[in-house]
Write a structure and sequence with these properties.
Strand content: 15-25%
Distance between the termini: 30 Å
Number of helices: 7
Oligomer: single chain
Strand order of the largest sheet: 6-5-2-3-4-1-7
Structural class: alpha+beta
Order of helices and strands: EHEEEHEHHHHEEEEH
Radius of gyration: 22 Å
Number of strands: 9
Helix content: 25-40%
Protein backbone atom coordinates (compact mmCIF):
# COMPACT_ATOMS: atom_id res chain seq x y z
CA UNK A 1 0.00 0.00 0.00
CA UNK A 2 0.98 3.70 -0.34
CA UNK A 3 2.39 2.75 -3.73
CA UNK A 4 2.60 4.40 -7.20
CA UNK A 5 0.08 3.12 -9.75
CA UNK A 6 0.76 1.98 -13.32
CA UNK A 7 -1.22 2.20 -16.56
CA UNK A 8 -1.30 0.48 -19.92
CA UNK A 9 1.88 1.58 -21.75
CA UNK A 10 0.07 2.35 -25.01
CA UNK A 11 -2.73 4.33 -23.35
CA UNK A 12 -0.21 6.16 -21.16
CA UNK A 13 2.08 7.20 -24.03
CA UNK A 14 0.62 10.73 -24.41
CA UNK A 15 1.46 11.42 -20.75
CA UNK A 16 5.05 10.12 -20.78
CA UNK A 17 6.45 13.58 -21.68
CA UNK A 18 4.84 14.90 -18.47
CA UNK A 19 7.11 12.77 -16.24
CA UNK A 20 8.32 14.85 -13.30
CA UNK A 21 5.40 17.30 -13.45
CA UNK A 22 3.36 17.72 -10.27
CA UNK A 23 0.29 19.67 -9.20
CA UNK A 24 -2.32 19.62 -6.46
CA UNK A 25 -5.44 17.61 -7.30
CA UNK A 26 -8.49 16.09 -5.67
CA UNK A 27 -8.41 12.31 -6.06
CA UNK A 28 -10.93 9.59 -5.21
CA UNK A 29 -10.61 5.81 -5.08
CA UNK A 30 -12.98 3.24 -3.65
CA UNK A 31 -15.76 4.42 -1.40
CA UNK A 32 -16.23 8.08 -0.52
CA UNK A 33 -15.33 9.91 1.63
CA UNK A 34 -12.56 7.70 3.05
CA UNK A 35 -10.78 7.36 -0.27
CA UNK A 36 -10.83 11.06 -1.19
CA UNK A 37 -7.72 13.21 -0.79
CA UNK A 38 -6.48 16.64 -1.83
CA UNK A 39 -2.75 16.22 -2.33
CA UNK A 40 0.04 16.66 -4.88
CA UNK A 41 -0.02 14.37 -7.92
CA UNK A 42 3.20 13.38 -9.74
CA UNK A 43 3.34 12.13 -13.33
CA UNK A 44 5.91 9.38 -14.00
CA UNK A 45 7.04 7.56 -17.13
CA UNK A 46 4.81 4.61 -16.30
CA UNK A 47 1.93 6.13 -14.37
CA UNK A 48 1.10 8.31 -11.38
CA UNK A 49 2.74 8.84 -8.01
CA UNK A 50 3.03 11.56 -5.40
CA UNK A 51 1.13 11.84 -2.11
CA UNK A 52 -2.27 11.93 -3.86
CA UNK A 53 -1.84 8.56 -5.54
CA UNK A 54 0.00 6.94 -2.64
CA UNK A 55 -2.91 7.82 -0.37
CA UNK A 56 -5.54 6.69 -2.88
CA UNK A 57 -3.72 3.41 -3.54
CA UNK A 58 -4.72 2.13 -0.11
CA UNK A 59 -8.38 2.29 -1.21
CA UNK A 60 -7.99 1.35 -4.88
CA UNK A 61 -8.73 -2.23 -5.96
CA UNK A 62 -7.88 -3.85 -9.34
CA UNK A 63 -10.53 -3.13 -11.92
CA UNK A 64 -11.61 0.13 -10.31
CA UNK A 65 -11.09 3.57 -11.80
CA UNK A 66 -9.43 6.55 -10.13
CA UNK A 67 -11.37 9.81 -10.25
CA UNK A 68 -9.14 12.87 -10.45
CA UNK A 69 -10.01 16.57 -10.55
CA UNK A 70 -7.07 18.42 -12.10
CA UNK A 71 -9.08 21.62 -11.68
CA UNK A 72 -12.43 22.77 -10.31
CA UNK A 73 -14.67 22.35 -13.39
CA UNK A 74 -17.19 25.06 -12.49
CA UNK A 75 -14.58 27.67 -11.61
CA UNK A 76 -12.46 26.82 -14.64
CA UNK A 77 -15.41 27.02 -17.03
CA UNK A 78 -16.42 30.42 -15.64
CA UNK A 79 -12.85 31.70 -15.91
CA UNK A 80 -12.43 30.49 -19.50
CA UNK A 81 -15.76 31.97 -20.60
CA UNK A 82 -14.77 35.28 -19.04
CA UNK A 83 -11.39 35.13 -20.78
CA UNK A 84 -13.16 34.64 -24.10
CA UNK A 85 -14.44 38.20 -23.86
CA UNK A 86 -11.56 39.76 -21.93
CA UNK A 87 -8.39 38.07 -23.17
CA UNK A 88 -6.58 37.87 -26.50
CA UNK A 89 -4.34 35.00 -25.41
CA UNK A 90 -4.24 31.73 -27.30
CA UNK A 91 -6.18 28.87 -25.74
CA UNK A 92 -3.04 27.04 -24.59
CA UNK A 93 -1.64 30.13 -22.89
CA UNK A 94 -4.95 30.89 -21.21
CA UNK A 95 -5.24 27.34 -19.90
CA UNK A 96 -1.67 27.62 -18.63
CA UNK A 97 -2.92 30.27 -16.21
CA UNK A 98 -4.61 27.38 -14.37
CA UNK A 99 -2.35 24.39 -15.09
CA UNK A 100 1.35 23.77 -15.77
CA UNK A 101 2.05 24.62 -19.43
CA UNK A 102 3.11 21.07 -20.36
CA UNK A 103 -0.09 19.64 -18.95
CA UNK A 104 -2.19 22.30 -20.67
CA UNK A 105 -0.59 21.47 -24.04
CA UNK A 106 -0.97 17.72 -23.57
CA UNK A 107 -4.58 18.02 -22.47
CA UNK A 108 -5.59 20.16 -25.44
CA UNK A 109 -3.92 17.67 -27.78
CA UNK A 110 -5.77 14.83 -26.03
CA UNK A 111 -9.11 16.55 -26.67
CA UNK A 112 -8.20 17.64 -30.18
CA UNK A 113 -8.71 21.33 -29.38
CA UNK A 114 -6.71 24.00 -31.26
CA UNK A 115 -4.03 25.17 -28.82
CA UNK A 116 -3.16 28.23 -30.93
CA UNK A 117 -6.74 29.47 -31.32
CA UNK A 118 -7.30 33.00 -29.93
CA UNK A 119 -9.71 32.88 -26.99
CA UNK A 120 -12.46 34.93 -28.74
CA UNK A 121 -12.60 32.24 -31.45
CA UNK A 122 -13.02 29.22 -29.17
CA UNK A 123 -16.58 27.90 -28.95
CA UNK A 124 -18.36 28.00 -25.59
CA UNK A 125 -19.16 24.33 -26.07
CA UNK A 126 -15.45 23.46 -26.34
CA UNK A 127 -14.55 25.50 -23.28
CA UNK A 128 -17.24 23.67 -21.31
CA UNK A 129 -15.96 20.30 -22.54
CA UNK A 130 -12.41 21.27 -21.62
CA UNK A 131 -13.36 22.31 -18.09
CA UNK A 132 -15.50 19.20 -17.56
CA UNK A 133 -12.73 16.84 -18.71
CA UNK A 134 -10.19 18.40 -16.36
CA UNK A 135 -12.59 18.26 -13.44
CA UNK A 136 -13.61 14.64 -13.96
CA UNK A 137 -10.69 12.57 -15.25
CA UNK A 138 -11.35 8.85 -14.83
CA UNK A 139 -8.65 6.28 -15.55
CA UNK A 140 -8.10 2.67 -14.58
CA UNK A 141 -4.68 1.53 -13.35
CA UNK A 142 -3.40 -1.83 -14.55
CA UNK A 143 -1.47 -2.41 -11.32
CA UNK A 144 1.06 -0.88 -8.95
CA UNK A 145 4.84 -0.56 -8.67
CA UNK A 146 4.65 -3.36 -6.11
CA UNK A 147 7.03 -4.22 -3.29
CA UNK A 148 9.90 -2.27 -4.83
CA UNK A 149 8.17 1.09 -4.36
CA UNK A 150 5.50 0.48 -1.70
CA UNK A 151 5.81 2.46 1.53
CA UNK A 152 3.90 -0.10 3.64
CA UNK A 153 2.00 -3.38 3.39
CA UNK A 154 -1.73 -3.96 3.58
CA UNK A 155 -3.56 -6.97 4.94
CA UNK A 156 -2.33 -9.32 7.66
CA UNK A 157 -3.57 -10.76 10.92
CA UNK A 158 -7.05 -9.41 11.67
CA UNK A 159 -7.25 -7.15 14.70
CA UNK A 160 -10.26 -9.01 16.11
CA UNK A 161 -8.01 -12.05 16.49
CA UNK A 162 -5.76 -10.13 18.91
CA UNK A 163 -6.02 -8.72 22.42
CA UNK A 164 -5.48 -4.98 21.85
CA UNK A 165 -3.86 -4.59 25.29
CA UNK A 166 -1.06 -7.07 24.61
CA UNK A 167 -1.23 -7.89 20.87
CA UNK A 168 -1.51 -11.54 21.92
CA UNK A 169 -3.36 -14.01 19.75
CA UNK A 170 -6.78 -15.03 21.04
CA UNK A 171 -6.18 -18.47 19.54
CA UNK A 172 -2.61 -19.31 20.61
CA UNK A 173 -1.41 -18.37 24.08
CA UNK A 174 1.98 -16.63 24.04
CA UNK A 175 1.88 -15.76 20.33
CA UNK A 176 2.00 -12.02 19.62
CA UNK A 177 1.78 -9.97 16.41
CA UNK A 178 2.90 -6.34 15.99
CA UNK A 179 3.43 -3.72 13.28
CA UNK A 180 2.65 -4.45 9.63
CA UNK A 181 2.05 -8.14 10.30
CA UNK A 182 -1.34 -6.94 11.60
CA UNK A 183 -4.09 -5.74 9.24
CA UNK A 184 -3.57 -2.05 10.03
CA UNK A 185 -2.55 0.44 7.35
CA UNK A 186 -2.28 4.18 8.01
CA UNK A 187 -2.07 7.25 5.81
CA UNK A 188 1.14 9.04 4.91
CA UNK A 189 2.56 11.15 7.70
CA UNK A 190 4.11 8.77 10.19
CA UNK A 191 0.97 6.86 11.16
CA UNK A 192 2.46 3.51 10.19
CA UNK A 193 5.59 4.18 12.23
CA UNK A 194 3.40 5.13 15.17
CA UNK A 195 1.40 1.93 14.87
CA UNK A 196 4.58 -0.16 14.73
CA UNK A 197 6.01 1.47 17.86
CA UNK A 198 2.73 1.51 19.79
CA UNK A 199 1.83 -2.11 19.06
CA UNK A 200 5.38 -3.19 19.91
CA UNK A 201 5.25 -1.23 23.17
CA UNK A 202 1.94 -2.85 24.15
CA UNK A 203 3.38 -6.27 23.38
CA UNK A 204 6.63 -5.62 25.27
CA UNK A 205 4.79 -4.36 28.35
CA UNK A 206 2.63 -7.47 28.37
CA UNK A 207 5.65 -9.76 28.01
Amino acid sequence: ALVPLLFDPVAWQPFVPLAGLSLEVAIEAGEQPRGRFVEDLLFTHRGLSGPAVLQASSYWRPGQALRIALADPSALRASLLHAKTASRRQLDNELAQHLPQRLADAWLARLGLPADAPMPQVRDKDLGRLAESLGRWELSPTGSEGWRKAEVTAGGVQTRELDSRSMESRRVCGLHFVGEVVDVTGWLGGYNFQWAWSSAHACAQAL
